[in-house]
Amino acid sequence: MLTVSTVNVNGLRAAARKGFREWLASTAADVVCLQEVRAVEEQLPEGVSDGWFATYAHGPKGRAGVAVYTRAEPSAVRVGFGTAEFEDSGRYVEVTLPGIVIGSVYVPSGDVGTERQEEKNRFMAAFLPYLAELSEKASTTGSEVLVCGDWNIAHRDLDLKNWRGNRGQSGCLPEERAWLDSIFADLGYVDVVRAEHPDVPGPYTWWSYRGKAFDHDTGWRIDLQVATPGLAARATTVDIERAASYGERWSDHAPVTITYSD
């Protein structure tokens, strides 16, 4: 069995104060992928990753940052995916464990009509061939690939509550959704949560801190586990670990935790 959890922590230092430590101590996950760490190791609370092999990719000061925590020591690690612009952006890191490569990705959020959206477009264009490369390597070696993270795109209308009001906004753009189509239809990857819940709204993984979004479950499903088909077919349990109340949240995202059979 392999249990993997992914969550955007919205700043690991703040999350550690609000309950991330307790969650990490109690999780049954073998691998935990983090996004938006927003700190280097020297800035993190002492002991925050005790008992884990922690692999980080840092971004510009106070921005981005991803990590993978594993209970077993990885045989290899990689930061970035070979595109110079994003090598030091803190947006991708991967580890190799027996029979599987697991990546943590933080796709830029974007903002229509701004450089942030252009950055997101460049990231998507560069990341797609790397995903193809990973899939091809896995196919030739008989291994699997799992890329977890905050993809910052609601693939279908079912993936956000207020889809009508967000048409034309970053995260819902036709070209962004088409990019995910390419990952699933052309490269053969599987959105594991959607495969397990094919025709239901959500389950949402992010809720704005503004207004009553969390209380009304006005969310987005943008935190995904994207797997090669062999691994996706082995998913046995899917859990969106939504906090019991607004006050118990330690991030504006919820962990997405999936168990895969041997």
UniProtKB/TrEMBL annotation:
Its cofactor is Mg(2+); Mn(2+). The keyword Aminoacyl-tRNA synthetase does not apply. InterPro entries: AP_endonuc_1, Endo/exonu/phosph_ase_sf, Endo/exonuclease/phosphatase, ExoIII-like. GO terms for molecular function: double-stranded DNA 3'-5' DNA exonuclease activity; metal ion binding. Mg(2+) binds at residues 8, 36, 150, 152, 252-253. Keywords: Hydrolase, Magnesium, Manganese, Metal-binding. The record marks 223 as: Important for catalytic activity. The record marks 253 as: Interaction with DNA substrate. Gene3D superfamilies: Endonuclease/exonuclease/phosphatase. GO terms for biological process: DNA repair. This is Exodeoxyribonuclease-3.
